[in-house]
Amino acid sequence: MAEDADKTKAGMETETAPAGIVNSAPKPGEPFEIAVLALQNTTLFPETVVPLSVGRTRSVAAVEAALSTEEKLLGCITVRPEITLGPQDARPADLYEVGTLAMIKRMERIGETVHIIAQGSDRIKVISWKQEEPYLRAVVQILPSVQTKDTEEVEATKRNVQSMVQQALALLPGIPPEVRVAILGSVEPVRLAYFLGSILNLGVEQEQKMLEANSADELLRLAHGYLARELEETRKKIPRGMSTS
Amino acid sequence: MPNPNREFSLLTVAHRVRPSGRLWNPAADVYRTADGWLVKVDVAGICADELEIDLDQANLRVRGCRRDTVYKEGFSYQQMEITYSRFEKTIQFPCPIEEASLEHDYRDGFLIISLRCK
């Protein structure tokens, strides 16, 4: 999963945490400052762990700033799909306002690229931007956790989603068993929806809609709709009798 | 608008995307003892003063945070494999424990919680 596209030279000096950058666990609703990594063509969801490769100088600087904090916290916000980045970096206006607070769990520097494993924890909303250079930094607040309004409807939609996933997996051989277990054994509807959002390759616009869903009901409905559409498209492309079980 | 040429795939699976909780979930052992339970949580490097331990019906919940207090200005990470973050560990017992007396100790990187049932 790539970030900010290219792999330009990093070669930067160590960034240290600016005064005021978050060094303790942020609480929901309380504004705090954080280094922001602009994600291109992908979305990081809460409750998922993803690997990211960071190559752009400014993005490496954002990761360095996050690593200099005691809890290794980083804001991950996606670049709007209508923005095509060339050699220039994303500007605040190019990014969505809602992203994900991530903890950097692993990091390794290979050449000029920094590889990280990030764990999404909470949704965040940008209140204001503090700087663009040497890395993006914003004041953000944690959005409330996604709540379930109608438990029965959410459970029913989750079962439908799992059923469709089973059909999709039959059409897509070669999926590792652990992924089947992760999807079909998922008990928690929100976690299932976020995981599907991460692996279905839906496109940034749809992924962002899922991220911005404020209820489990809306989130599951979106996941169900996108999955149904993708499944239908896939069936059209695969000749009869070609699917596996 | 969705890209009409995009193929439905689970490609990112190959890149080790996986579901997780919201927080770090440290490993724990649970022992039955003569008068209750003993829980050992693998949380080396935490600040013991920040620990929160709650009992609720049959659940024990431990919360805290492991921070990187070694990093200094002028340092630059080459590699990081230790998880630094808030953590929350909930252990469900087969019987109610909220009436149990609780003692805890932090030694050699383990949080040791002793529950004596009445």
CATH classification class of the largest domain in chain A: Mainly Beta
Radius of gyration of chain B: 20 Å
Low-confidence stretches of chain B: 1-14
What is the general shape of chain B? Answer: elongated
| Helical content band of chain A | 25-40%
- Which residue ranges of chain A are poorly predicted, with pLDDT under 50 across at least 5 consecutive positions? 1-23
Q: What's the pLDDT, averaged over the residues of chain A?
A: 84
Question: Distance between the terminal alpha carbons of chain B, to the nearest Å?
Answer: 63 Å
What is the CATH superfamily label of the largest domain in chain A?
LON domain-like
What does this structure look like?
The complex is a heterodimer of chains A (245) and B (118). Chain A has helices at 57-67, 151-171, 177-184, 189-199, 204-212, 216-237; strands at residues 32-39, 48-54, 73-78, 98-110, 113-131, 137-142. Chain A is an alpha+beta fold. A five-stranded mixed beta barrel of chain A has the order 1-3-4-5-6. In chain A, a hairpin with a 5-residue loop joins strand 5 (113-131) and strand 6. The radius of gyration of chain A is 19 Å and the shape is globular. The two termini of chain A are 28 Å apart. Chain B is an all-beta fold. Chain B has one domain: Sandwich (Immunoglobulin-like). Chain B has strands spanning 18-19, 28-33, 36-42, 52-56, 59-65, 79-80, 86-92, 101-107, 110-116. In chain B, a hairpin with a 2-residue loop joins strand 2 (28-33) and strand 3. Mean pLDDT of chain B is 85; it is low at 1-14. Classes of the chains: A alpha+beta (245), B mainly beta (118). Chains A and B meet through strand 2, strand 4, strand 5, helix 3 and helix 4 of A and strand 1 and strand 6 of B.
